[in-house]
Amino acid sequence: DRRPIDKLSVKAMGIDSAFGGGSNFSVTVIEYLSDIQKFRIIHSEEYHRPELQSMLDLIWDLRKQYGNIANIYVDGSAPVVWQSLKQMLGELWNESYMKTVIDSCKQFHTPLEKRMVVVPVNFSTEHRKLLQGMKWAVEYTDNEGKPLIGIHPRYEKLITSLRTAVTTTDPYTLNKVETSFSDSLDSFRLS
Description:
Helix content: 25-40%
Largest sheet: 6 strands, mixed
Order of helices and strands: EEEHEHHEHEHH
Number of helices: 6
Strand order of the largest sheet: 5-4-1-2-3-6
Structural class: alpha/beta
Shape: globular
């Protein structure tokens, strides 16, 4: 779709922070096109060993540039990243508050993203569900054979990561050694 990005359309951002020796900090932004009930990637990039503040500035700029980013899903194993984002956006982030909100959401079957903008995601417990959902969304086509998600060819790393994605013996556990640009894939499945 060649139309300009609509600042009012609903968007989500996925962030895989650079955790580990060879990892990159990766950001993906996806936009929902309500009139055609499809999604498109509007940003997907990896950043090699960036400073945290430069990434916080980038995220702030992307929110202003694209508008209406409803939720920012962040790898929960990097509290310095998601807590800094929450602080930057004026959200409460202390441990007791987070525990209270998470427990309340579980008790009342409320999605966490309804209660907060910056949503820390625990990959150790959610990775299978994230990969399964991403696989379904990427493979889904409508009755005209058109995909649910549009990815522009300029997002080469994301496309390569999708083409090279390999699982372990567990069908929904990503083999990050065998998968090229796995950080782009992780930020995409978070978005």
